[in-house]
């Protein structure tokens, strides 16, 4: 039976009904198909693709054209899941007008059904502007990777102690500002679990956590972490549900051995010559 398409109102209803929301990043059509088949509610075309697909150190170099290209592939692959596209660094910070134009391109050319941007209070006018043209906006507060240079690295945000008193209140204010500006959900990245619980209780819109504990309305993982596609490092907050990186190395290594050893291809993978014509 064909499953019902996930929409933005569905995601809001899920919070009200206490149903946990699942989000996973996707960057291309084959993985979008597989994640959709697995029942993932939201496919996030994250600018994390700069790091996990392009091999860059940060998400900062990712362009809007690249985001549109990947979003289009993901939109083609999914049947049920909601497609959420990230606005990359430099495509929305200059002015609300610039943000609206970028969001329109992500929807019109990429097929996104909602867009995500990083920042709280400082981005309130921008969120309002995008929401006012009926493009659903997801906020993103706490650790915002596009602010990596200000934060001095990919660090947990909103801890009460340390050198930045008031940080916890700032993250809470940011989440409130995102909701007040008209966002339909907010990603909470790398904040203490009690702060995430406080924000989740305070907001009417769903919170989607990554490194924010179990009390959020939903969870998001980066695909490459979930599948164990990197053979080395995984962030502490992520869980590897498979070891596909090792499996790829094993399979490709077996292929190399078989070609070198003359084992592959066999007759089973070859085409027989055309039968000679009789007479
Ligand atoms: O770009 C991304 O993958 C993200 C998630 C980490 C939430 O923003």
Topology:
Layout lengths: L7 H10 L3 E5 L3 H10 L3 E4 L3 H4 L11 H14 L4 E5 L9 H13 L5 E3 L7 H9 L4 E6 L5 H4 L15 H14 L4 E5 L3 H10 L4 E4 L7 E4 L1 H4 L17 H17 L19
Parallel strand pairs: 1-2, 1-8, 2-3, 3-4, 4-5, 5-6, 6-7, 7-8
Helix pairs in contact: 2-4, 4-5, 5-6, 8-9
Bound molecules: 3-methyl-2-oxobutanoic acid.
3-methyl-2-oxobutanoic acid binds next to strand 6.
Order of helices and strands: HEHEHHEHEHEHHEHEEHH
Q: What is the average of the pLDDT values?
A: 94
The total count of strands amounts to 8
- Sequence stretches where pLDDT stays below 50 over 5 or more residues: none
Task: Kindly estimate the percentage of residues that lie in beta strands according to DSSP.
Answer: 5-15%
Number of helices: 11
Gap between N and C termini, in Å?
55 Å
- Helicity range of the residues? 25-40%
Main sheet properties: 8 strands, parallel, barrel
Overall body shape: globular
Tell me the structural class: alpha/beta
Question: Could you tell me the radius of gyration in angstroms?
Answer: 22 Å
Which cofactors or ions or other ligands sit in this model?
Answer: 3-methyl-2-oxobutanoic acid
What does this structure look like?
By secondary structure, the protein is an alpha/beta fold. Helix content is about 40%, strand content about 15%. The chain has 11 helices and 8 strands. It has helices at about 10-15, 30-40, 50, 65-75, 95-110, 125-130, 150, 165-180, 195-200, 225, 245-260, and strands spanning about 20-25, 40-45, 80-85, 115, 135-140, 185-190, 205-210, 220. An 8-stranded parallel beta barrel has the order 1-2-3-4-5-6-7-8, surrounded by 7 helices. Strand 6 (about 185-190), helix 9 (about 195-200) and strand 7 form a beta-alpha-beta unit. Helix 2 (about 30-40) packs across helix 4 and helix 8 (about 165-180) packs parallel to helix 9. The longest helix has 17 residues, at about 245-260. The radius of gyration is 22 Å and the shape is globular. The relative contact order is 0.11. Bound molecules: 3-methyl-2-oxobutanoic acid.
